[in-house]
TrEMBL record:
Domain (Peptidase S9 prolyl oligopeptidase catalytic): residue spans on this chain: 199-334
GO molecular function, one term: carboxylic ester hydrolase activity
Protein name: Prolyl oligopeptidase family serine peptidase
Species of origin: Polyangium spumosum
Taxon lineage: Bacteria, Pseudomonadati, Myxococcota, Polyangia, Polyangiales
One GO BP: proteolysis
Amino acid sequence: MHSHGNARRRARPPVHVRIEMAARRLLFDSGWSEMRSPIVSMLVLLAGIPLSGCRETPTAHAETRPPAPTPAPEPLPSPAERAVERLSLIPEFPRATGGPFPFGAQDFLVWRSRVPRIEEVEITSSLDGTRQRALFYDPGRDEPRPLLVALHSWSENYLQNIGIPYGIFAERNGWVMIHPDHRGPYRTPHSVASELALGDVLDAVAYARRRARIDTSRIYLVGYSGSAMTSLVLAGRHPEIWAGVVSWVPIYDLVDWYGHLRSNMPDRHYAHEVAAACGGAPRPGTPAEEECRRRSPRSHLRGARGRVNVYLGVGIWDQLVPPDHALRAFNDLAAPEDRVPEGAIVRIKKTRSIPEALGIPDPRPLYDAAKAKVVFERTSERATVVVFLGGHDVIYNAGLSWLGEQRRDVLP
């Protein structure tokens, strides 16, 4: 042990080290790592420390240390996570029921008052060259956006005001929307899921893709009543296009529906219009029966199984299109073990109640908000069917919320 008198004075660090130490104290003790005063800049330069940050850079005079291990990069989100988009729904429009809707006349000015940038356009048919009208909304975004194709119902045209909430939704969320006429009310051979009517919907998609930047993995189709039938035909015949198809209270089989109308609603206009579209009453063995079958989802829907995400919604008390139509459509899309038994379908149609054997579904807040409690729900393959307490209805937000989650991820 050395005495205090004989203790050696500790050697002072070299000048360049003292400069480095002083510079670091000035930078880090003050917290001003981006300081740009001339003195600090000189000190930092001498010390070999970059001005752009606080990370040590080895110099000829500094102690060389092994580089710190590079931190693992943040994992990239999965395609599903990247695709999730927070939607602004339309809670002020929870439900639409067949009949008058609180927007006034079915007129373009009514649409424009609710969706100021909506346009009335004409699209040349690729099949017969006629000019077909549609409503079109483009949010004008630079990045590709989803396309919502909304179809009017049986008795209406492209100005149907029940479609206005879809325009409001598109505006709020920056989606592109088109509302084609597809040959107007369903009462002529050119309408009712005819080749021309289907072609008009496809032409509308092509028009929207020319006019706006469309995310082709997010092209959605929604139909109601008669156009729900058309949407299912398009799902089966053109599964390569659609990321998701929503069909509210769909007609599955025109022949069966014609019989229902004749037996239960002989004074309504629908049976006459089915016959007018198909070339006569679709009695067994007639060309009209064959034509009605050709226009019905039952002849095409299996082409969508496993390839298209399809959502079917129906009110259990629907008198116009009984719930068995949606359930039979679901069975065409479902795996065999998930299909609704025929006996249960017959009972649901007859009693308008759900057999206990089918189970109790989980609560669905968007249906509850529309006062349309879900009483049956089943999903299989890429199809979902929902039966709710209601009639010939649309539950807007349930369908739109579901669509927002769908992507086209199956090759044609």
